[in-house]
Amino acid sequence: MDFALPAHDRKIIPEGRLSGPMPWIIAIMLFLTTLVAAAGLTLAQAAQQGGQDLSRQITVQIIEADPTQRAASRAAVVRNLRKFKGVISVDPVTDSDVRQLLEPVLGADILNGDIPIPALIDVRFDTPPTAATLDRLRNVLGRVAPDIRLDPHSNWMAPFYQLMNMLLLLAGAMFLLLLVATCAVVVLAVRSTLNTHRATIEIMHLMGGTDMQAARLFQRRVALDALLGGCVGFGAAAITIVTLDNGFVAAQPGLLSGDALSVSGWVILALIPLAVTALAMLMARFTVISALKKML
Q: Rounded to the nearest 10 degrees, what angle do helices 263-295 and 211-251 cross at?
């Protein structure tokens, strides 16, 4: 759609599109809206990927005080796990790694005593295991290691993903509030301009002009302002997102490199300025027609 104003329309509404504050207010609103949307999309992507990955993993614990018997049980359990249907990887955790995991919690003095250290084995399935699958696996492994425990990763990560879901709801609420604030800016700007050109619009009606023709003038004006402000706000937000993403990856490449915004996420963000422009046009049309019905 061509948003350019014809020459006679520019005479009716003579202010240039850069003369008022609305484009810059919309740019600020779009900047914040895009950042909130990017945060929400990144959280949703991380929760989905992390949830799918963790749901396929379990940790096998072998509780045995005798180090020799514990090592023998671990070897037997590893052999049985590699034969179990659906298991794609079995990674025994070394005793030194287990000590490093427990030392911050128990302390070095306790670990250096006679406290037994469990043997840990990380197991990954091709698909998330069901309760029946875990029960069957527990029975199989219990024959070679009676003191055994299966810990699905999804269980102890559940509170973390509940928090992420709450943050997603918060991001969605902030996104909607910013859209409402943007609509309010458009309504106030249109009403202010409408009051300024009240006499001109009354003359248009005396000459046979309709409410829709007057609304179309403001609609085009608002579309240009919203599109300009949206592009500026989106550009600033995109630079901020890329800069922050590169900084996170450089700081913790192994932890955060998989949480970068996807291509589909960028497409959704790019649609926000266009959606806000269309919303601004609708709000301008509705505001002008409603005001003219009360005015004339």
A: 150
